[in-house]
Hints:
With 118 residues, the protein is an alpha+beta fold. Helix content is 15%, strand content 51%. It has one domain.
Amino acid sequence: MNKITLTIALVLGFTIANAQDTTCTFFTGERVIEFDYYTSKGLYEDRQTKKFYDVKVKLGNVLCLHLCDQKQRVRKVKITYFDGSTSNKVLNSYDDFYYLSNDIVKVSVGKPKLIIKL
């Protein structure tokens, strides 16, 4: 069920991305790089020194979140919507892309954590 939801979200994200500005943020280990979606040119680089790194998104923009830890890890992601509501997700971060809709204003990305399956 989660894969179907993610697939629908990605298709919707690709569709919306063509009509609106897209903010792209790349996470690998402690490195955080924001880049231009259309030219792939890096805009700035930062380090994730706190438990969560906040990515602010202009209302109406789509966020392309690339989590690339190159190890089987997960990251906790807190999403804040324009109406003030929030949701929490745990996302795979081996080398995965996530497109978040145009009704978000902030995304807080946690540090990578080891996957423990029981």
